[in-house]
Amino acid sequence: MSKETRWRRSTPMAAASLRASAGVCAGTPRHVVLRTSWVYSPHGKNFVKTILRLAGERDRLTVVADQRGCPTAAHDIARACLDIAMRCASEPERAPYGVYHFAGAGDATWFEFASTIVELAADRLGRKPPVVPIRTVDFPTPAVRATDTRLDCTAAARELGVRPRPWREALAETIDCFLTNKDTP
Questions:
Q1: Are 35 and 101 spatial neighbours (Cβ–Cβ below 8 Å)?
Q2: Which residues pair with 108 in a beta bridge?
Q3: Which of 185, 155, 157, 181 is nearest to 170 (CA)?
Q4: I need a labelling partner for 129 at 20 to 30 A (CA). Which of 18, 43, 79, 119 fits?
């Protein structure tokens, strides 16, 4: 099914992702599935916008520090999808079809991600509440969360030519777009 993926069925979301990817793979040999994680943008509901709102409202933020992943800008995913589609359309017989990972370069815990969001936005928010690390068990949610959702994007870079940007760089751009009401480049 994949050139690089070891599927984990540790959570209902992971199992749903596996079923969806398997369905695409079974439906056509000419497919590219990008698996990603921790997606954010200046639009819609997401972690970055929630942290920015809470940083403006609260004197202190508590954020889980024992779950690790790769923050990924939606704009970067869109750009990668367009580049991949153009490549597959230009050489459909030779395109490297399959399942790949694409996520922001580097990794972080939710705590590190939140701390960086607050740091990058502090001047424009006019405040910088402390971000305090907590354990997953101290922040109960209805959904079971995997502790490690990091993705190795080596195959996507090598075979598809899409290289993710460092997540901090993409995050700074996203925060700038959101706080100044600009569109992403």
A1: yes
A2: 69
A3: 185
A4: 43
Please give the single-letter amino acid code of residue 160. Answer: L
**C-alpha span between 4 and 41 (Å, rounded):** 27
Residue 60 structure tokens:
């202190």
83, 34 in Cβ contact below 8 A? no
The whole-number pLDDT of residue 25 equals: 72
Q: pLDDT by residue (tens digit) across 18-28?
A: 777 777 677 77
Query: What class, spelled out in words, does domain 30-180 have in CATH?
Result: alpha beta
Which residues, listed in sequence order, are joined to residue 35 by a DSSP beta bridge? 101
Buried-state track 44-56, b at ≥16 Cβ within 10 A, e below 16 = eeebbbebbebbe
- The single-letter DSSP state of residue 40 is E
Quick: pLDDT tens for 111-141: 999 999 999 999 999 999 999 999 999 988 8
**For the chain, what's the residue count?**
185
Task: Kindly report whether the global pTM for this prediction surpasses the value 0.85.
Answer: yes
Task: Provide the residue ranges of all domains of the chain, joining segments of one domain with +.
Answer: 30-180
Q: Residue 40 is which amino acid?
A: Y
CA distances to 66, 80, 103, 155 from 35, rounded to whole Å, are 22, 12, 8, 12
C-alpha closest to that of 97 among 20, 160, 4, 21: 160
| Burial class of residue 179 (count of CB atoms within 10 Å of its CB; 0-12, 13-18, 19+) | middle
- List helix spans (H) across 31-161: 47-57, 74-90, 110-125, 154-155
